């Protein structure tokens, strides 16, 4: 299949991108409005973009109704955000924080999470997140024709759970139980390898499909339900 991107609308292109670029790390972004209302949003268009100073980037799509997300509005207003890393014990709260809540709702309270004060920025951290990064805005870049925005943030404080911080400044990634994003689903990072692997092992796994942890049938996807939207938000408010 060869697809000319000029023929794609934003939703169609988004489906191809999120199904091709996998797995994606999830930035569970906490912000606060100028009035102090806390917001949470999982952002999977997320990566590191610099080392000195350490820098991360977020790409935010608009809400399903075309308006800017509270996350972007808060970042513009306060000049800061916190990137919390998602692990398996928080997967459900992370997913529920993708609901399109009204702007006046404290989303920590809505999904049942406790806040922890940051040291430098006004945005709160997620109390039990194993890794959090306090970020100040470096730049905000409009992208394309549909109100997407890239945010670059300088990491000014790392908060790392003590048992994850190893000698020589290394993080024990095997103990993290990190959760990543596939297309519209999630994946648990639970195996690790270096190359080369033995050919028999590769042959055994060739063509093997992922195993599901949630009991859904093979091939099922939230993209085929009314809960999914190309904004990255979850539209259904009932589980």
Fold and architecture overview:
The chain is of the alpha+beta class and 239 residues long. The chain has one domain: Electron Transport, Fmn-binding Protein, Chain A (Pnp Oxidase, Chain A, Roll). The protein has helices spanning 10-20, 70-78, 91-96, 107-111, 199-205; strands at 24-25, 27-32, 38-43, 46-51, 54-60, 80-85, 115-116, 125-126, 131-143, 148-160, 179-181, 186-188. Strand 11 (179-181) and strand 12 (186-188) form a beta hairpin. It starts with 9 loop residues before the first helix and ends in a 34-residue tail after the last helix.
| CATH topology name | Pnp Oxidase, Chain A
The total tally of domains equals: 1
| Secondary structural class | alpha+beta
Proportion in helices: 10-25%
Q: Report Rg.
A: 18 Å
Major β-sheet annotation: 7 strands, antiparallel
What's the end-to-end separation, in Å?
36 Å
Number of helices: 5
The chain-level mean pLDDT equals 96
Strand content: 25-35%
**Total number of beta strands:** 12
CATH architecture: Roll
Low-confidence stretches: none
CATH homologous superfamily (4th level) name: Electron Transport, Fmn-binding Protein, Chain A
Strand order, sheet with most strands: 3-2-6-9-10-5-4
What is the 3D shape?
A: globular
Order of helices and strands: HEEEEEHEHHEEEEEEH
